[in-house]
């Protein structure tokens, strides 16, 4: 075992190597290991439970197709989450170009307004607060505070300096505090 490398990382490296050579069982193991975390990230970034399965599948299709190109410069999980973040950004752009209507309790409402018609619980309130952030801030908050990713890994994932990550966290947290305060919730 190499010093400084966890057993999970070594196992990931082996699975990635096998999967990139066509071993479908190795890819299934990677999927089982990471699908729930990717799904959680996608939900927190998009807050669209109806499209979660499709988006998760899209991420893993892209991962499968791109595995032979994975160089191993970073951990597999870092690379995977970067693909997930890119898929979120693509989906957001697509949604802005082609807004859809949603049916809730027999009413047709424009996409993005359905939350106003639902009873808010804590999870939904957090999701709603996250949607008020700029995308660059939301990504950092979700990855760091909700997914427990280290700042250095997020910096690699987003190709920005660690200082930028720290700054985005600061401003995002401040904006979230202000939003919750405006809702009458003191943290």
What does this structure look like?
With 187 residues, this protein is mainly alpha-helical. It folds into two domains: 1-98, Orthogonal Bundle (Rna Polymerase Sigma Factor, Chain: A), CATH 1.10.1740.10; 132-182, Arc Repressor Mutant, subunit A (Orthogonal Bundle). It is built from eight helices and two strands; from the N terminus they run H-H-H-H-E-E-H-H-H-H. The protein has helices at 7-20, 24-46, 52-66, 76-97, 122-131, 135-146, 151-158, 162-182, and strands at residues 101-104, 107-110. The chain has a two-stranded antiparallel ribbon with strand order 1-2. Helix 6 (135-146) packs across helix 8 (162-182) and helix 7 (151-158) crosses helix 8. The longest helix has 23 residues, at 24-46. The chain is globular and about 55 Å long. The model is unreliable at 100-120 (pLDDT under 50).
Draw up the topology in text.
Elements: H1 7-20, H2 24-46, H3 52-66, H4 76-97, E1 101-104, E2 107-110, H5 122-131, H6 135-146, H7 151-158, H8 162-182
Antiparallel strand pairs: 1-2
Helix pairs in contact: 1-2, 2-3, 2-4, 3-4, 4-7, 6-8, 7-8
